[in-house]
Every structure is written in structure tokens, then in C-alpha cells.
Amino acid sequence: xxLDALILSRLQFAFTIAFHIIFPSFTIGLASYLAVLxxxxxxxxxxxxxTLYLFWxxxxxxxxxxxxxxxxxxxxxxxxxxxxxxxxxxxxxxPLLAFEVLxxxxxxxxxxxxxxxxxxxxxxxxxxxxxxxxxxxxLISAFWIVSANSWMQHPTGxxxxxxxxxxxxxxxxxxxxxxxxxxxxxxxxxxxxxxxxVVGAASAWRILxxxxxxxxxxxxxxxxxxxxxxxxxxxxxxxxxGKEVLHVQPAKLAAxxxxxxxxxxxxxxIAAWPDRDAEGNRFEIxxxxxxxxxxxxSASAEVKGLKAFAPQDRPPIFIVFWAFRVMVGLGxxxxxxxxxxxWLLWRTRGPEYSRPFLWAAVAMGPAGFxxxxxxxxxxxxxxxxxxxxxxxxxxxxxxxxxxGQVSASLLAFMLVYAVIFTVGVLYILRLMAEGxxxxxxxxxxxxxxxxxxxxxxxxR
Amino acid sequence: MTLDLPLxxxxxxxxxxxxxxxxxxxxxxxxxxxxxxxSPAERDVMMESIAPVWDGNETxxxxxxxxxxxxxxxxxxxxxxAMYLPIILMxxxxxxxxxxxxxxxxxxxxxxxxxxxxxxxxxxxxxxxxGLVLGGFIQGVKLDxxxxxxGPFDWLTPYSLLVSVGLLAGYSLLGATWLVWxxxxxxxxxxxxxxxxxxxxxAALLAVVSxxxxxxxxxxxxxxxxxxDAFNLATLGPxxxxxxxxxxxxxxxxxxxxxxxxxxxxxxAYLVFLSGYVGLAVGFFPNIVPYDLSFRQAANADNALGLMxxxxxxxxxxxxxxxxxxxWLFRGKVGGDAGYH
Lengths: 460, 341
Prior knowledge:
heterodimer, A: 14 helices, 6 strands, B: mainly alpha, 3% strand
């Protein structure tokens, strides 16, 4: 296989999947948030919850649509660009992806229609059920895709047949591979945090620009609650997941921490410039012994360095090292934001009156997306040079297609995604700047029924 | 287990692809007909008629792709690289038309115009790309063992272009007959006119494609009992109900369009599609990658197929149940429900 098609296919997959993950990591959290808002409205009859629902559901509709169309791409790209991977992996994880489509995609797609356009056609209880089913669907989808990915990270429950093909022998161990529970929790919490950061930023922005109406206060306070509880929890879950990496993917851990030598009392590098050719760090800012302590739980623990692995078995180090630091750094900032917000809630008139806090919340709005993408870069680039860890190398997984075709498709994806991303973000930001309308312009209006609204306001 | 799992799965995938064509066919057809609408308001109604259901309809395409990956990985691994460029074109086109459902509303003057064009252009391009894939598939894929061994443009032939145009006419027919069912007044009258034109084009192109298909691969000709000059009636006889179904379908379309009666013309169009679908399948079955890989050779391990069948047995009835419920919920004429606006 020609190397160019391989590199281009990797770039294309990285680009299309990184683009895609932006939307699910927002809509998984937003769907749950909408279900909570609608539930609170039904229980408390506080109209502010409904106003918030009607506002966020419009943003949900845009984001979900972008997630759907960029997700369809992935279900075909495994074949167009990674046909060898498909034939090797399908006997084991084929059912997992099939279950994702059957259990999640149809559920989400069908009840999204009811959620957006069924406001007048079904009663409030049934409408709430539709919202809840969409939220459940997003979580089922995350369950299966993270399950499949976890198996690729640490394959268990399979055997290799004499002809080299894989075959599942224990489905339970395929679906619940050892790293899966932590990774699923990590991804779900990441989605919830991402959404909370966006909700917090939009609410803070509204308060800064227009003053504290009830909806923005509610939105901000709910977001602070999420930061304060979920961000520390995420640190804990992420650490569990990291401890797992030490055992099942020691090369990835060495890359994350830029450890070259195998030794006890590994230092923790706050910053470093890892150099593959020199097999060392060109410079480093380090804290002695802390590396062993946080990765293995004890300063005297021996932790493997990259030199313990043959050069062709080492993942790219620079990108993994820095992506990890971006993710953790943002996570720590999220914890700080949560602590600050909680302190303002308990000890002052309220977070609405602290302009520095509001500006900080606005600034942190996109942090969840950056952290999620960084986290996936750590997971996926850190698994290299394997696509199925220890089983199939990425270089052996690619389709028999030429570099010309792949460069054409990569360019086309970049162009189309640039357009829809720019426009989608513009429309979402525009909606956020307008903010929730209170009271709703028209009670009977189906939430997010853009086309209905379009006809009413026609001609444009 | 005595169940013939690969055969069952061939049936499931074939059904998923057929359902995709029948359901997203009218969605794409709406997009193809978009430029012919009389006003922006009419386009809004056209889009509104499918807005609650298009996402679910397109999910059958994901099941087609994901299901092929999971049930027939060797077919998936051979077909996708073979059809690389048209598949990518289809995906990009579906992206542009998919986001247009939301973007078109949020755009102001230029934005709205752009996404109106993107919805129409994306629908046309996705349809043409699907036709190229179908044409490339029918004419056969060059394999080495179970892997693709052909060139990047093998799919591009006069035959695949012909199929592509035929599919464009067919989806237009589905879109027009859907509108006859779901709209009223001026738009419905216009949809009936579109329906007549699309029905004539579909009938003509289906006839040409059917004849051309006999010459695309000798296996197809043998299957239909065609020796190059004449048909062997003993072989052809049992297959005649297939083209007859197409003719019946066209007659039903005509009756439905003449009376503008409910979903009658759409059902007629569905019969035409069913006839074409089965007619093509007869030519290549039991191959799943024509003409060197059968569905048995391409099938996944039995334990994977078995596990998935359990999932299908539980989930598919539920999917069909709530899909039918959603269609029922959004029944009725779109333009007539004033409260909906």
C-alpha cells in the first residue's frame, strides 16, 4: 500500500471524526439538559423552564442535524478508507456498531421529529417522553461507540483463528472490555461538562449584556451546579482511566508523560519538548518523583519509559504529551470555575453580580470542546501505531485506494465542513445573542419549528 | 442452530436498502423538485412536509452501511473502495442538503437563498451519486480474492450514467407523488403535473435501463433467458411478474394522479420501485458483490450474525412501531393545517 494514501486516509479520518465529535459531545449533554428543563417545567409549572427549553431546543436542532450528517460519513468511511480494518474488526465489533444504529440512531431520529414538531400534536407528558427518549438515545449511542472503541484500545474476549481472522468467544468481555466502564463514564461526563460550559457562557453573556433576567439566572446557576459537581468527578474518573492505561497501554502512558527511561521516581513534566530522534526531551520543566506518584500511585513505583519499546512501536509523543496537558489544564480550570461559582452562590448575593466571574464563564464556553478533542487525540494517537491495539497496525488497515482519490475527498471534506461549521456556529451564536424570549412569543408555537416560523414570516 | 443466518441477513440488508430508497427517495425527490416551486412559501411547505421524518428515513442508509459492515464485512470492504468517489460525493451532498433543513430557516436573505440552492443541489447530487453506485454495482466489481482490485473510475460508464439519470426521474416521481398526498391547492396541482412528467420519464428510463442491463453482463442475460437475439420463454416466464408489477405500478400512479387521490400515486410509484429493485436483484443474486462474491462468502462469523439477529428481533419491531406512529402523528395535509404555521 502506498504510504501517501495511508497518511491522507489518517488525516481524513482524524479530520472528519474530530469534526463529528464536536456535535455529539454537545448534544449528549444538551438532550439531557432539555429533558431536565421540560421535566422541571412539568413539575414546577415555572414558565422560565419552558422558555429555556424553547430556546435551547433551537440550538439543539442545529447541532443535532450537524452531528447526524457528519456521523453518516463515518459509517461509510470505515469501508472507503479502512476496508482491511473492517474485515478484521467486524466479526468482533460489527454487532456493537449494528446495535448502535438499531438501538440509538432510529430512536433519536424518530423522536427528534416529535420533539421539534410535535409540540401541538401530543400532550405535554408524551412530549416530555419524546425528549427523554432522545436523551436516552444519545446515551445509548455513546455506550456502543465507546464500547467498540474501548475494545480497539484493549481487545478482550476474542480468539485468532488459524487463517488469521478474529472471532468473538465471549461477547460480555467484548462489550465490557476492561477499560470500557471508566471510558464511558469519562465521555459522558465530558459531554455534560461541555454542555454546561456552553449554557453557562450563553447565560453569563446575556447577563453581561442585558441584565439578569430569570432565565439567564437559572441557566447560570444550573451550569455552576454542574461545574462544581461534575468537574471534580471528572478528574477522579479520568484518573481511573489513566491508571488503566498504565496497565494495558504502557507505551501510551510513557508518551503522555514523555517518560523515556524505565525507572522508579519518574519526574512529572509540566512542560517538555519530546524529540523522537534524540530519544529524550530537548527541555523539560519537571517536579521530581511526582510522575511515578500520579501515574502508579507511589513515588517508588517503576514506570516504563518509551525506550522500553522498539521505535516502530512507539506512538507519536509530542502530540500525545501536549494534548493530554491541554485536556487536564482545561479540566483544572473547569474545577476552578466551579469552585468560584459555588463560593459566589453561597457567600455573596449571587454569581450574577460578579463581572469577573461572568467573563470567566464566557471565556470558558468553548473549553469543553477543546478538552474533548484533546482527550480523543490522546486516546487515538496514543494507540498508534496500532488501530486495534496489539492486533492490527494502522498501516495494514487501509483500503486499496489511490492517493489521488483520497486527496480529492480530503479537500472536499475540508471545504464543505469549513462552510457548514462556520455557518452553523454563526447561526448558533446569533441565537445565543438573541437569548431566550420571555414570555414565549406564541404559546402554540411548536418548539424549533423553523419551517413553520419561516412560512409565517414569509416572504423573506 | 438450523437458521440460515447469512440468508436471513441478506434479507435484512436488502430490506433496509429498499426501505431507504422508498423513504428517503421522496425526501430527495422533494429536493430535486425544489427549483420548480412557484414561491419561497411553497418551498417551505414542501420542506415542512418531510421535516419531522427525513432524519429517521436517512437512518436506513446508516443501517444499510453499518449493517453491511456488520453482516457482510467482505462485501462492505470490497464495495466501498470500488465506489470511493461516488460514495464520498453522496456523503458530501447529503451533508449539504441535511443541514439545509435548519440552516435555511436561520439564514437571512443571502443565507436562505444559498441553503435553498444547497438543498436542491445536494439532493440532485446525492441521487446521481447513488445512481452511479447502483450502476457500478450492477455492471460488476473487479475483485482479487475478496478485495477490490479495480481502478478508481471503474464505476463511470455510459450504463452507470444512464442508471443515475433513471434514479433522478424515479426519486422525482416519489417526491411528486408524496406531495400529491400531503399537500393541497396550487402546490398539489403543480405536484400532479410534476408527477405526470416524472412518471413518463421514469417509465421510459426504466425500460431503457432494463434493456441495457441485459447487455451489461452475460450472467444477467442468462438469468433472464436472453441469448442476444431472443428470449427463452421457459426461463423468462417465471420472471414475468416482475416487469408486470412495474406496469401495474405505473397504472396505479396514473389513476392516483388523475384523481389526486390520497397516497394512491405514491403507492403506485412504490410498486414501480419494487419491480425495478427485484428485477435488478434477480440479475446478480446470490452475489453480494457482482459477480465474484456471493453473500455466503462475504458473510460475517455465525456467532456475530446470531447475536445481531437477537438484537434485530427485539429492536426492529420497536423501530417499525414508533416509525409508523411518527408518520401517523404527522398525517394529513401540511398546507391545510393552519395551526401548524
